[in-house]
Write a structure and sequence with these properties.
This protein is α/β, with parallel strands linked by helices. The chain has nine helices and 14 strands. It has a single domain (7-272), classed as Metallo-beta-lactamase, Chain A. 23% of the residues lie in helices and 23% in strands. Helix 9 links the parallel strand 12 and strand 13 (263-264). The protein is globular. Bound molecules: zinc ion (2 copies). One zinc ion binds next to helix 3.
Length: 273
């Protein structure tokens, strides 16, 4: 059940084998206290993407994060990595592991951790004991961390990209990442009997369908065509809405994809698996 309850109950996660996924950011941009770019916190120790929402965590909470799974290299999804690693690196005893497609890692190395935009924290404080390490992954990989499995799903975007399924022994949540029409995704989801939640982007309103197509995002019409390929019952939540178009886009989503009764994803929502 998604709720806006406080995250305090996360402390019990390990004992009950529940997995909690908290939305730290799900907007297509910034602007005011409620708009944060993409970041999901899984229990207390794993992030999926590291957009501006990560900045709302306390220093203590940041220091507990051991893994970040990235969907792609765009700034709205990676912007908090350099700042958080600098803030908590010296508080930690082991490196922060960033899991991403090889092409994503390459971009981060060349254009972000390049000693110009930011220091290369895979070399700091020493190459043998760094604050940050990269771990390449491929579409289809499954990585299990403390009884939670992260499956790498296909995505179609202007740069190499992926989505993720997070599951425990009970159920699964799928996050689409940034994607345009993604025909490879639906047969995979249709084979997931434990699928409970789908968090999927709809970055633009229908008026901007051409821009959505060009930038490989979805608009409500495209979302409806995507969901028509899904045969599993699932609760659908919409992310990455463009600031200034939120109400219009959600109206169009509810009209075009009404059979799914999609809800708007909001900061602070917690999904329990
Ligand atoms: Zn993107
Ligand atoms: Zn994005």
């Amino acid at each position: 059940m998604a709720s806006t309850h406080s995250p305090r109950r996360r402390a019990h996660t390990r004992h009950t084998a529940q997995t909690q996924i908290q939305v730290l950011g799900c907007s297509g941009g910034i602007g005011g206290p409620h708009l944060r770019t993409t970041a999901l916190l899984v229990d207390h120790d794993v992030l999926i993407d590291a957009g501006t929402g990560v900045g709302d965590l306390s220093l203590g909470e940041l220091s507990l994060i051991d893994h970040i799974f990235l969907t792609h290299c765009h700034l709205d999804h990676v912007v908090s990595i350099p700042l958080m690693v600098d803030s908590v690196g010296s508080m930690r005893t082991r490196p922060l592991t960033v899991h991403a497609l090889p092409a994503t890692i390459e971009v981060l190395k060349q254009h972000l951790f390049n000693w110009s935009i930011w220091p290369d924290f895979t070399q700091i404080p020493s190459p043998t004991n760094p604050y940050l390490i990269f771990e390449p992954l491929e579409i289809g990989d499954e990585i299990t961390l403390n009884q939670r499995t992260f499956t790498v799903l296909p995505a179609v975007h202007t740069v190499p990209a992926c989505g993720y399924a997070v599951r425990n022994t009970t159920s699964a949540l799928v996050f689409s990442g940034d994607t345009g029409p993604n025909p490879a995704l639906w047969p995979i989801l249709n084979q997931m009997p434990d699928l409970r939640y789908l968090l999927i982007e709809t970055a633009f309103c229908n008026r901007e369908k051409a821009l959505a197509t060009l930038s490989q995002h979805l608009c409500p019409q495209l979302l409806a065509q995507e969901l028509a390929q899904l045969t599993q019952p699932v609760r659908v939540f919409i992310s990455h809405l463009k600031p200034g178009e939120v109400e219009l886009t959600m109206e169009e989503v509810l009209h075009d994809a009404q059979a799914w009764a999609p809800q708007m994803l909001q900061n602070g929502m917690i999904f329990t698996l």
